[in-house]
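Need tokens for this chain, all 124 residues.
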Amino acid sequence: METKPVNVARVSNNWYLLTGLLIGLAVGLLVSLLLVPLTNAEALPAELDPAAKAEYRLMIARAYVAQPNNQRAESRLALLRDPDPAGALVTQAQELLAAGGAEEDARALAHLSAMLSIGALSAP
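Here are the structure tokens for all 124 residues:
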């Protein structure tokens, strides 16, 4: 009985695919975890730093001046979770003027604060 010789080269040639796949996965995992880790650039408005919160308040005030939608402005301000939203707006307007900022922006902040203080925003 004659036995066929096993082609060792043919069987071992397929191992490079599996080896390459495993090495590629390992290198990809190391690169993604150690060299270039993913940073989350998204945050809730309440989690922002004070400078970003000030910018967010200014955007709310500008949007309110452009299109006075009471419910939208109130809901956006609520996302900041400020203890006194009207006071925060007034303080920011004063700081903006003291720093030589745009008077139009300070007026927008003051206008929104006034509307919030008199309760115009909470009325339906």
